[in-house]
Amino acid sequence: MLSATRQSNTVLFVTLSENANDATLTQANDGGFLVKETGTPATAYVVSATAKQGSNSNIVELTVADMVASAAAGVTVTYSSAGNGIIADQTANEMATDTTGVVVAPW
Fold first, then answer.
1. Other residues' Cβ atoms within 10 Å of the Cβ of residue 89
2. Can you give the pTM of this predicted structure?
């Protein structure tokens, strides 16, 4: 993951370092992503779906629970290749787990 940006209190865009296989981007679950408020306590927000963002094969759109309570702190997005994490590039190489994640600045 290169970066993440907040589109609204319920939508985040995550930019990947390379194009993904489009079929692996759209999931009716968390897709392997976890969104938590940055800092402590780290309130977690449920990711209910993932999708390819428009025609961009390197941007994943996350639908999340309302994050308005974390506006002052921002959120951090991490990814796990276990469980629902099935994102792969166009040659079937799976995306690696990223426990450090990317930060969305306070808004």
1. 17
2. 0.95
